[in-house]
Amino acid sequence: MKAIFGSLVIGLMLALPLSAHAGNVTVKGSDTMVILGQRWAEEFMKKTPATKVQVTGGGSGVGLAALQNGTTEIAMSSREIKDAEKQKLRARYNSTGVEIPVAKDGVTFYVNEGNPVTALTVEQLRSIYVGDVTNWKQLGGPDAPIIIYSRENSSGTYVFVKDHVLDGEDYAASAQTLPGTAAVVNAVSKEKNSIGYGGAAYAKGIKELKIKKGNEDIAPTAENIKTGKYPLSRDLYFYLRNKPSGDAKTFIDFALSPEGQAVVTKVGYFPVK
């Protein structure tokens, strides 16, 4: 009986429009953005304690799916929304969604601190991740097999790398998928012959590779990412079904305010303003 009652309660809660849950804002999606989202929520709730902001990860695809099925008010995404996702929103809500860039990031490739390789071209990164190059010796490094770490396919960073580095090709079958950027960084820090990728804010205890472009090695620095000079610069987004209003708008306004953008810098990403 308890289980049936619990299911009924959950069903009723899900059936209610999110606006019915006064004083609550739900934010879900990108694991790249989850720490940033949580810091924003913490600072926002200090200023407006009557409003509760719940932030959870799971990946950009998970957040956008939750936006489509009505279980989150704001989806965090480290990639642009796909056309198919827009059409699902249109079919259910007669809207293709609202996109709000809230921070900037540079997708960074990590190697172990003991790896002598310091810079690679985008083409060399592609060759590693599609499986054409399998030994560091081919790239001026030690004679050792390359251990590839990747994100799961629900990750916006996974999609960004597939689109912008792999040119749409599939990842090598040998790539080991891990559930979050923090897990990738941890694995790379322990495996001397490995390579992984993720957001610039997570690059602790490992070495960031520079991107070779022409005669220049471009580092994922704040200035290079803000100006777009770093080849793998990207925006980080909030997506909503419609124009923000109520508590969600107040929260987003805070994230985009000078105080909110200062949080972006503290976390390790880069302001949009």
TrEMBL record:
UniProt superkingdom: Bacteria
One Pfam family recorded for the sequence: PBP_like_2
Signal peptide annotation: 1-22
InterPro entries xref list: PBP_domain, Phos-bd, Phosphate_ABC_transporter
Family matches, as Gene3D superfamilies: Periplasmic binding protein-like II (3.40.190.10)
Gene Ontology terms, MF aspect: phosphate ion binding
Annotated ranges, domain PBP: 21-259
Gene Ontology biological process terms from the UniProt entry: phosphate ion transport
Keywords: Phosphate transport, Signal, Transport
Biological function: Involved in the system for phosphate transport across the cytoplasmic membrane.
PANTHER family: PERIPLASMIC PHOSPHATE BINDING COMPONENT OF PHOSPHATE ABC TRANSPORTER, PHOSPHATE-BINDING PROTEIN PSTS
Family label: Belongs to the PstS family.
Protein name: Phosphate-binding protein
Native organism: Myxococcus llanfairpwllgwyngyllgogerychwyrndrobwllllantysiliogogogochensis
